Amino acid sequence: MKKYVYMFQEGNSKMKDLLGGKGANLAEMTRIGLPVPQGFTISTQACNLFYEKGEKLTEEIKEEIYTYLSQLEQETGKTFGSKENPLLVSVRSGAAISMPGMMDTILNLGLNDDTVLALAEKTQNERFAYDSYRRFIQMFSDVVLSIPKYKFDHILERVKEENNFMEDTQLTAEHLKEIVKEYKKIVKSEVRRAFPQEPREQLLMAVEAVFASWNNPRAIAYRRYNEIPHEIGTAVNVQSMVFGNMGNDCGTGVAFTRNPSTGEKKLFGEFLLNAQGEDVVAGIRTPKTISQLQQLMPEVYDQFIKTTEILEKHYRDMQDIEFTIEESKLFILQTRSGKRTAEAAMRVAVELVEEGLISKEEAILRIDAKQLDQLLHPTFEPRALEAAQMLAQGLPASPGAARGKIYFTAEKIIEAANNGEKTILVRQETSPEDIEGMYAAQGILTARGGMTSHAAVVARGMGKCCVAGCETIKVNEQKREFVIEGRVFTEGDFISLDGSTGKVYRGDIATIEPTLSGSFGELMQWADEIRSLLVRTNADTPADARTAVKFGAQGIGLCRTEHMFFDESRILSVRKMIFAKTTEQREKALEELLPVQREDFEGIYEAMGERPVTIRLLDPPLHEFLPHSGKEMQDLANNLEISLEEVKEIAESLKEFNPMLGHRGCRLAITYPEITIMQTKAIIQAAIAVSKKNNITIKPEIMVPLIGTVKELKYLKDVIHETAREIIKEAEVDLDYLVGTMIEVPRATLTADEIAQEADFFSFGTNDLTQMTFGFSRDDAGKFLKEYVEKDILEQDPFQSIDQEGVGKLVEMAVELGRKVKPDLKIGICGEHGGDPESIKFFHKTGLSYVSCSPYRVPIARLSAAQAQILNKR
Amino acid sequence: MKKYVYMFQEGNSKMKDLLGGKGANLAEMTRIGLPVPQGFTISTQACNLFYEKGEKLTEEIKEEIYTYLSQLEQETGKTFGSKENPLLVSVRSGAAISMPGMMDTILNLGLNDDTVLALAEKTQNERFAYDSYRRFIQMFSDVVLSIPKYKFDHILERVKEENNFMEDTQLTAEHLKEIVKEYKKIVKSEVRRAFPQEPREQLLMAVEAVFASWNNPRAIAYRRYNEIPHEIGTAVNVQSMVFGNMGNDCGTGVAFTRNPSTGEKKLFGEFLLNAQGEDVVAGIRTPKTISQLQQLMPEVYDQFIKTTEILEKHYRDMQDIEFTIEESKLFILQTRSGKRTAEAAMRVAVELVEEGLISKEEAILRIDAKQLDQLLHPTFEPRALEAAQMLAQGLPASPGAARGKIYFTAEKIIEAANNGEKTILVRQETSPEDIEGMYAAQGILTARGGMTSHAAVVARGMGKCCVAGCETIKVNEQKREFVIEGRVFTEGDFISLDGSTGKVYRGDIATIEPTLSGSFGELMQWADEIRSLLVRTNADTPADARTAVKFGAQGIGLCRTEHMFFDESRILSVRKMIFAKTTEQREKALEELLPVQREDFEGIYEAMGERPVTIRLLDPPLHEFLPHSGKEMQDLANNLEISLEEVKEIAESLKEFNPMLGHRGCRLAITYPEITIMQTKAIIQAAIAVSKKNNITIKPEIMVPLIGTVKELKYLKDVIHETAREIIKEAEVDLDYLVGTMIEVPRATLTADEIAQEADFFSFGTNDLTQMTFGFSRDDAGKFLKEYVEKDILEQDPFQSIDQEGVGKLVEMAVELGRKVKPDLKIGICGEHGGDPESIKFFHKTGLSYVSCSPYRVPIARLSAAQAQILNKR
């Protein structure tokens, strides 16, 4: 026969899947001799069986529960329903993964009209007994019978009002007896049956209710949000009650073995005298700090300190402990690893290593890589945030907190920034022309676009706060205003953005700057020693490159050359190139661009030293560079000596239905090889210059975007080689360089063996690969992606974490085909996924050589890469 | 030692790869005893070696050529360079696949200042000898020495002028001697050496020149156009000369054993007395018909007739024969399968089967499926076409010939058509709103868009002539004019279009209507008996459906429901649905659409009877249905009782950056399930109604577009089932239906095993699959695809013939994964590739159940499917 119920002493901490986290910990604490009120756990398998049988407990399980109940009665010397020494129990849920506050709990189960008398008699405290009973009825009715709490609260309030009481504690035993009567009446009228008096019936009903609460909406939502599988189910813990509310030698509290905000090694906690656990959580009374316990009950305090030390050593981690003191006797009700801030997590992990409790590998695994963002960006001052008014919710596109006056154009932002103002750029969506404004602003807010929209990608690269795709705001750029639900915000109004949550607030909320502790540096160094996956950065400017190096980047995996084209001093030359009617005209415009592009690369080589730099040739469709205003068009017409009409005509002819799938990337380069020639010249000439100047060896990596067939690469490689070799020969130097390709078109993954024959390296462009594999435009998908996640059609946004099943299959295929031809082929990834921990683990497993991510994600990538290495070895 | 040269008697007709088509045929004719002037063939392997060695003949091959030359001298009794009996030869190219007129030929090789005297002496015809010599010098100089022909022509003309001659034949031997002298001077001044006098040197130079001509630009272009591999190389045939120009008992001609235009079994050909082959080809003199030979040389005629009969029986196909008569002696210089029209091909194939010469399978393989288009569409009257002036060249988007007055809007077209005018719709690009105009027009011309642009797809569906992506015309729709190279065409001007070639002509060119012969029906029936791949059609209207059935369609593989939405009477309801602010409003608008949509389906079921009909749910992005003009917007605003402002705002919010990858297909259906509910109702209700009315069993196939993950399908399947089952239950009938999916997103192919679990059938949407796998927008790719093919980066437009290496890999993967889960899964393809012969062969091999193509391509598909079956069995 299958076993579904376990006494605490039968289990241990390794049985989390079966007993849930709480059950396994209660068992473990029992096992190591800590004062835990005894009880038993009904396993997660019972929960699954419960759902299989149409949300019913089987007879088999019921019998088993009764058996274990008897054993508990024997151990405690108390009996369910006894009029002398009644057993009371708590019934609590507990899944393998902690879901705090998400499911239901019932205390004081076993009370009825008889046992309440016995409890009063035994404790010589009638008030306590009836207070417990009325709490039980309300809790049971809420959780099991689905009677809303407020119906009971009304009665309590009425009685207090009638007696002019302010506090619950002013109620006497007589008042509480009255209240219990009224409560039972409510139950009868609501569910047309009397409140169940039989403790065993109470127990089975409670167990069923806890199992059923696994699928209540907030639990489902919590699991979805935290990526917890729905199938694991919850266990139920039935534990004999101890009472913190039997008088002033009683109490209840929670404590952390270290400070969960800073990580400082000092007991941190609070407790209430004469109270039950729910009072602490509810925040009705102001609790005392744990140090005050020392004065009030020195012996209990000493015992508690010893216990916490045992627990931390035993679990080898900072613990979050719930305890109750019943008539000066300490009971531990729960222990678990404590939630903590990133800063605390770092410090605790490093100090635990120093204390010899855990290994460096364990320390690395203990850190949630995603949490590192907190450390690298400003956050709101918590009290200021509490008072703030939220206006809207967008996508958390780039983390950090920002506050400032709103402006609607890059020009205005730059002007205001020059006047020393803090600013927020608000746009329908950003375009490459906004770059300067984005640099100057504190944060960026857009009404459209997803997590990989232009605004989001660029902001993350800059480490700048950005809330994108905030569809409830209606931006009117001409009127210089936006509207949220009828409320108008105009130029110069203050707002604040939280790029980590996507929330938009009214007004100017104070922020705190981040500080990087020594623990951070130490942990990162350990990570670097362990990981095999290299970490590069996506950087287009010397400033970005320097930031990334500071954060530990080992090279540049993606330098986008087009961002340089939007500078005001260059855009005219770029447009002349685009509007050229002959190859000669185009070459002339490119000649103007050559020196500035060369300077760009020189700056980047200077910042990176001998670290590898991968430069991608021009990628976006040409129409991104088109003039928009009449003035810009006229300027261009004058400059090119053609009519305004003609300028408009050419601009029109460059428009595309689906620019993402249009004339861009290597397709442009094949149509206009002169662009590739200019860029190759700039790359090679700059490398020669900086190599000479600094007496270092620079080996540029030239990357051709959007290859779909090997012949495209072959064609452009010939152009690049011809250009580069001539320059190198003329300069009479020894310069080596690589020519590789982005793998971002599905067809490239399918024919990667052929492409590998012509490529010195591969770099996955997983943004575009995801777009094309799903057929999702990242700029348009916002409209339905959110709904897809809500309706559980997608588990997560595939632009944030790589879709391992679909897109990942293509990645694996390309790696396999590529390495079949060139076993040592250097393969990286430079899409947004290069900074996502889950994706990094996948890339490590797939055998990639490096990931490349935005500068502010480099530490996350270093840590994730180390974690991947450790996990993969296990 | 490897053998590179073969005497004619050493070869046979099976050695085409080695000896080329001409060489193998000369060998074969020699083998069966026909009168062929003797000679030898230098193999295609020698050609490849020639290119390997940097365009040089190896010493080894030269020696071998000399050896075989000696043998030829022995056999003919003539000697190279002999002053008594000189051997003269022709040197001709001949690849394994015929490339008529694409490479170079040299006649009379072996003549020099000495042998010309011997020839004069031997033939007693000095004029003939010098005429041959001057021809040889000119031809050799052109082909081998690259001296332009016109330089020699000038001299000939000058001499004629000086003597007031009209015809070459008026030139005397003396004149020709003078001309030869002058010709040799030209050679000397052009190439700074004397005209080579040594026949062996002449021969080697000629062989090298023929090999080199394999890679001349027109030969490369021809191979690209005809999809002939560049690597196969050409052979060179060296054959002893016979002379048709030695007097009036001599002549030369070509003949077809059957009529190449109609296929009629009657010798068809022409000849010239006293002429060499080049005179026939050049068209200088008007040739006589072959029947006139009977009067002039009855014995030769009889021998020739017998020879043609032998050849046709031997080769079991209609032959194209070149012959020469030298002093009343017949020589066969070449025979090959004759090129023919589609009509002739049909008739010849069927009659050869009836004559017992070939099997039905062979007859089917003999037809070029692509050629069938000729049979189904009007063509230009050939003489009228000769006189026509070509204006521009676009893409051959939908075959047939059309002529009419140009108009620039659908409204104008309809108005003109109602007045009985023939019209051509000219647009920058068409949109779904142009459908009615496209129906009313004779043909469609667009300036933008590729082979699978809206105009192209819709026109092919209608069987209507269309030239798309004609980028040299500048359309100004507002001015109602288009401009080609400065010349303006305005509303009402006549143009003519050839949709089979993409050519645009000035004026009104007469057309001929097609007729379908009995042979066509017979051949199609044989094809149907043989093929296992079913052929369905893409049809959106009852009219299209009826056309397709007439052409043999076995069902509908794709019925696009959105085309129905553009009808003037419906578009307002569609817009109300899109602009609805609540689900109620949307449902109300959908209620208006339900009866009309139901009617659409009833019409289609009526046309198809019990044949299966696959209906695809709404696919395009909603913005395609948006109002454009101010009036349309105002109408909508009035109707919805909202402000014009609001209409504009909603329209703006529906715009997408990349609509192809946006909110469309199943994504729309998931956001607005009420649309799916309405469409399901219409599909099922119509099926019930027509089943009852006609007492037949209709089993609709509902197809969900753009599935990327199984959960999308599952979600919509639930919606469809719920709706359909309720209707079926209410109607108290027995109606079966299927729910399947398009496989068109790369991710769907990668997870086809999961999707198969929920799908009753798959249908590949290879248009979208090609777009996403290549990352090509079919509407924008025109800009670079042409260049890609020209630069040999792509062998062909992947939207026309499926890319087997990339896209095909995904198709194979999906079939394998799908059938692993459901071995009998019905899998079709309904993209444009369903009508392309090469693609159909691929789909047959991949194991698909059916292909679906536009009605006018159904016969092509039936034939191709049969060919695939036969080829696969072999």
Automatic annotation (TrEMBL), chains A, B:
Query: Could you tell me which residue ranges the Pyruvate phosphate dikinase AMP/ATP-binding domain spans?
Result: 57-295, 302-349
Q: Which reaction does it catalyse?
A: pyruvate + phosphate + ATP = phosphoenolpyruvate + AMP + diphosphate + H(+)
This protein's species is: Irregularibacter muris
Q: So which cofactors does this thing need? A: Mg(2+)
Catalytic center at which residues?
Answer: 454 (tele-phosphohistidine intermediate), 830 (proton donor)
What family does the entry list?
Belongs to the PEP-utilizing enzyme family.
Q: Which InterPro entries match?
A: ATP_grasp_subdomain_1, PEP-util_enz_mobile_dom, PEP_util_AS, PEP_util_C, PEP_util_CS, Phosphohistidine_dom_sf, PPDK_AMP/ATP-bd, Pyruvate_phosphate_dikinase
> Which parts of the sequence belong to the PEP-utilising enzyme mobile domain?
421-502
The entry marks the following residues as binding substrate, namely 560, 616, 744, 765-768
Q: Name the chain's protein.
A: Pyruvate, phosphate dikinase
Keywords (alphabetical) are: ATP-binding, Kinase, Magnesium, Metal-binding, Nucleotide-binding, Pyruvate, Transferase
Task: State the EC number(s).
Answer: 2.7.9.1
